[in-house]
């Protein structure tokens, strides 16, 4: 694709980074450097991604942790592989049980929304199937960071402080005391630039390293999790942990103007980005920043998102198949309802009868798109004492309506927000991309893909471009540098446009593209976070 690497009016001070031998892009410089360290020791891109992911649990606890879930798209030996390491709810939880506890919908915090963590198993599985170096070597940089400490970076410090202030107001039960002991041991969040370390986190990573992840699911760590859950009336047990194994899946894709855009299939929401691209493909986007371009993109996304939230869950519980949602017929039907004015979307009527992100690449042709998260920042607010294990709250997304496709059931995986993306053309890898951030993620994937394919923006410019986020109904949030005259024009089309200064709500992404002729790597990193590209 032809791109301008020198100037775009909305670019940050960062430029696209070029390298030949290897590249790691993520939201924390120290984590990116951990991955580069592994590349320089002879590891491949998958090894580097594992080391980076482990380091991210230490240096960005506000977004992910050992107690979260993970997904990956791995390009190796000219084939794309998908890994779903999202865990199910425990076996002894149910809609009836939640209603006995007085809940009309799944809570956000506490022991109830905790699901089986998939992160340690993802690391071990990726290492076993596609890595080169010994697993324990990949954990070494993260262990060092946890033991010796690191200075807290600006965006990390901002979110850590915000969480500490919020949790001090809402976390009153004993089950949350370990969160405060772990993350605010002096009664406050660490300041920006202050050194932070976590001996318990280091010991947990050592245990995972020494056992190839087994201790988390069948050993000493599983016993600690089980005991803390029993003490506080939780459901997650060592039996649930022991039964878990990540699933290798066939990635799904749509062809968008000659490029294949790839995502993980359900239970993930990556499908929504593909559905929106399919709808948008019926329009011509002749001008990058125009009222019609933004209007049609927003309407395409809101239709895809509305249907995705209504139908996506575990495949066997979806009332409509993945193939139907990605079909030309579906796209044509949904595109037909888009007109000149903003709409209040409703789910399609069915036929009677359904985070932290990182990218890495090496000089052998391997590339990986990887994402892991605890959800909603620190997750459930429940931390296993003296381990650094902050448990996720993915169960919050389940419905307590037994008729809903995403209804809570024992052993079921929920609709999942975290999604890695990948781009290919004519069977060759272009590269990994992703935008973390809850329900912004498919919207970020859509915007990055359109910026790259339709408007030929280089990786950094594709990430820096002003973003919009459809929220609900006709409400759309835009960034402060979104062009004011276009915002006003969208209002005249019936959209409710709200400018928000919370840059994190628009996602934080990374991109690595490979030149098919020279093998040169080209990377962009998010200007909305502390990100860095470590290149070799």
From TrEMBL:
Keyword Transferase attached: yes
InterPro entries assigned: GGT-like_enzyme, GGT_lsub, GGT_ssub_C, Ntn_hydrolases_N
A Pfam family per the record: G_glu_transpept
Keywords: Transferase
GO molecular function terms noted in the UniProt entry: transferase activity
Protein's UniProt keywords contain Acetylation: no
Protein name (database record): Gamma-glutamyltransferase
The species this protein was found in: Jeotgalibacillus alimentarius
């Amino acid at each position: 694709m032809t791109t301008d690497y020198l100037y775009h009016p909305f670019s940050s001070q960062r430029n696209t980074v070029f390298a030949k031998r290897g590249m790691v892009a993520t939201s924390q410089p120290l984590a990116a450097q951990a991955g580069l360290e592994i590349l320089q020791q002879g590891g491949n891109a998958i090894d580097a991604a594992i080391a980076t992911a482990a380091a991210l649990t230490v240096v960005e606890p506000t977004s992910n942790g050992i107690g979260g879930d993970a997904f990956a798209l791995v390009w190796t030996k000219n084939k794309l592989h998908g890994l779903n390491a999202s865990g199910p709810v425990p076996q002894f939880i149910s809609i009836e049980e939640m209603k006995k506890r007085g809940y009309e919908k799944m809570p956000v915090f506490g022991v109830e929304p905790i699901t089986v963590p998939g992160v340690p198993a993802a690391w071990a599985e990726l290492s076993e199937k596609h890595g080169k170096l010994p697993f324990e070597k990949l954990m070494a940089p993260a262990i060092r960071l946890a033991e010796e400490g690191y200075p807290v970076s600006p965006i990390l410090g901002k979110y850590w402080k915000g969480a500490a202030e919020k949790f001090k107001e809402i976390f009153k039960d004993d089950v949350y005391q370990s969160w405060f002991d772990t993350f605010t041991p002096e009664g406050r969040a660490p300041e920006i630039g202050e050194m932070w370390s976590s001996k318990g986190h280091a010991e947990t990573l050592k245990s995972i390293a020494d056992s190839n992840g087994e201790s988390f699911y069948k050993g000493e760590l599983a016993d600690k999790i089980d005991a803390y859950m029993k003490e506080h009336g939780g459901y997650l047990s060592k039996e649930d942990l022991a039964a878990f194994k990540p699933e290798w899946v066939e990635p799904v894709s749509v062809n968008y103007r000659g490029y294949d855009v790839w995502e993980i299939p359900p239970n993930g929401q990556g499908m929504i980005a593909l559905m929106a691209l399919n709808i948008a493909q019926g329009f011509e986007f002749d001008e990058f920043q125009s009222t019609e371009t933004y209007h049609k993109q927003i309407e395409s996304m809101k239709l895809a998102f509305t249907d995705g939230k209504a139908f996506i869950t575990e495949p066997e519980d979806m009332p409509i198949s993945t193939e139907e949602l990605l079909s030309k017929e579906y796209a044509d039907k949904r595109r037909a309802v888009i007109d000149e004015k903003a709409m209040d979307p409703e789910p399609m009527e069915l036929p009677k009868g359904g985070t932290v992100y990182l990218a890495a690449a090496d000089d052998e042709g391997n590339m990986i798109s990887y994402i892991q998260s605890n959800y909603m920042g620190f997750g459930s607010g429940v931390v296993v004492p003296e381990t650094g294990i902050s448990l996720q709250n993915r169960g919050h997304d389940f419905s307590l309506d037994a008729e809903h496709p995403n209804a809570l059931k024992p052993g079921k995986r929920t609709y999942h927000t975290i999604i890695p993306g990948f781009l290919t053309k004519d069977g060759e890898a272009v590269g990994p991309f992703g935008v973390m951030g809850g329900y912004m993620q498919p919207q970020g994937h859509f915007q990055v893909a359109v910026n790259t394919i339709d408007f030929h923006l280089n990786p950094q410019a594709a990430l820096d471009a002003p973003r919009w986020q459809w929220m609900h109904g006709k409400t759309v949030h835009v960034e402060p540098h979104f062009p004011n005259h276009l915002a006003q024009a969208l209002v005249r089309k019936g959209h409710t446009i709200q400018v928000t200064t919370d840059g994190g709500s628009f996602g934080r992404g990374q991109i690595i593209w490979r030149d098919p002729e020279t093998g040169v790597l080209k990377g962009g990193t998010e200007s909305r976070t502390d990100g860095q590209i470590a290149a070799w």
